[in-house]
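Friendly challenge for the regulars: who can give me the structure tokens for this chain first? No prize, just bragging rights.
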Amino acid sequence: MTMVLSSRRRRVRREDVVKALFVVPAAIYILLFFGYPVIKNVLMGFQDYTTKTFFTGEAPWVGLQNYVTAITSGLFWPAMANTLLFTIGSLIGQFVIGMGLAVFFRRRFPLSGFLRAMLLLPWLLPLIVSSATWRAILDQDSGILNQALGAVGIGAVPWLTSPDVALAAVVLVNIWVGIPFNVTLLYGGLQDIPEELYEAASLDGATGWKAFWHITLPNLRPVMSVVLVLGVVYTLKVLDVILGLTGGGPANATQTIAIRAYQTSFVDFEFGVGAAFSNILILLSLVFALIYLRSNRRAVDE
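First reply, four minutes later:
Bragging rights claimed.
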């Protein structure tokens, strides 16, 4: 009996070692390419890190001075407002359209699989390629969108050159980019809802919006939480789309915290202040995620 137990323990230990060996490469990759940059960025936020540091290796500690410089800069609060508007507008558009398409594709019809595959194209393209394409589409003089508007008697719209319109145009492009992500996750969540629930509800007269409100949304809540939290994290740090379309202009109308972090670090070469901007962005993501997850958990418990 003792020998049997000891052999089982050895087998369990061996299996645990094998499992750990499979996990170790991924853990090392995450620590090297994600963990180290984040830690380094946090440390840089408290250092006077400039181009001189690359030659001397010296980066004096300055405490919170980089954060004071970042927050008191003239573009910080406009960039913060643009970041919030950009994030909220993108999330609402992506989620609403993504939910509508996910519900639509839940029904089987000819070419549904092909059309679902085509929806993934915006997600698969590099963001800088998508930005360049949309920049050509939205060009005021030769863009196809203004040409189409002109065909129906509407004047050319300065999509990317007017401070009043540029942020809305950038939000619309980012919605287009994020729709496939929302559709994919929400459609997968819809597949896990038993069809019997809809059949039982239809017997009680709950169809259409009633079924969606009382069956689809409650059962889809865990997936919706993941979609919204990841959507916030991804949208707050969007850089490629804005850089490719407007570069933060015109007249700083599309400046966000992510753009400020990039320009401060790689245009002005003030890496410490740029790191402070990035850390503020990370903090915003964490705060929103914690607040949303806590409120969602409370709603589930009730």
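The chain is about 75% helix and 0% strand. The CA atoms of residues 46 and 64 lie 6 Å apart. Your move, everyone else.
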